[in-house]
Amino acid sequence: MTCPFLEYRSETSDRQFDESRAYCEAAKQFIQPMRADICNDRYELAHDQHCEIYLEHADEVPAGYGNTGQPASDLQWLLYLAGDPVIITAALTGGVQGKEATPHLPETPEEIGKAAAEAEEADASVVHVHAQKDNGERTFATGCFQEIDDEIRQQADDVISQHSTPSQARANLNL
Ligand code: SF4
């Protein structure tokens, strides 16, 4: 588990870096790459056992965030409950599955637009969508995503539409 005080920053007030660097929010300073192994709990290191800075600031960690064995998604939820701002992304569609998996899964652009509006109502800021052809096959065709986006724009107010992309490089955008 990553230390809750660890951030990656690509700039300071007067400098910019090509690659973001590890920054400790507890110590308010950038940290050396070797120490970042502790921050990221690599190589059997553990921030809550081996970092003196963490141990000094452990009481500032939001309740429930610790080496509890909880999955990261639960920990993000605990941070949200503790008052940290979060960005919620709702994955609306199945990447492979369709209504054969559950009748509640939106497939058509109209259904996806409606689901986006409902997700927005539930405080999501981003909707992640997959597109499929009429025969149910997955597609990355720009026209299909355009239809989905048009419906999302029409039915939702102000959500970001995040398209699924192929996991492999494909030159033909009409797949
Ligand atoms: S492990 Fe220590 S140095 Fe790294 S981010 Fe946490 S408190 Fe800071």
Write a structural description.
This protein is α/β, with parallel strands linked by helices and 175 residues long. The protein is 31% helix and 18% strand. The protein contains six helices and eight strands. The strands form three sheets. The protein has a three-stranded antiparallel sheet with strand order 1-2-3. A three-stranded parallel sheet has the order 4-5-8, with helices on one face. The chain has a two-stranded antiparallel ribbon with strand order 6-7. Strand 1 (6-11) and strand 2 form a beta hairpin. It is elongated, with a radius of gyration of 21 Å. It starts with 5 loop residues before the first strand and ends in a 12-residue tail after the last strand. Mean pLDDT is 83; it is low at 67-71 and 168-175. Iron/sulfur cluster binds at residues 3, 5-6, 24, 26-27, 31, 35, 38-39, 47, 51, 53-54. Pfam families: BKACE. InterPro entries: Aldolase_TIM, BKACE.
Report the principal-axis shape: elongated
Please state the average pLDDT score.
Answer: 83
Give the N-terminus to C-terminus distance in angstroms. Answer: 38 Å
Tally of individual helices: 6
- How many extended strands? 8
Order of helices and strands: EEEHHHHEHEEEHE
Query: What's the assembly state of these chains?
Result: single chain
Assign a percent range to the helix content: 25-40%
- The number of domains is 2
Strand share of the residues?
A: 15-25%
Helix vs. strand class: alpha/beta
Neighbour order of strands in the largest sheet: 1-2-3
Q: Specify the biggest β-sheet.
A: 3 strands, antiparallel
GO molecular function: 3-keto-5-aminohexanoate cleavage activity; metal ion binding
InterPro entries: Aldolase_TIM (IPR013785), BKACE (IPR008567)
Pfam family, one: BKACE
Keywords: Metal-binding, Transferase, Zinc
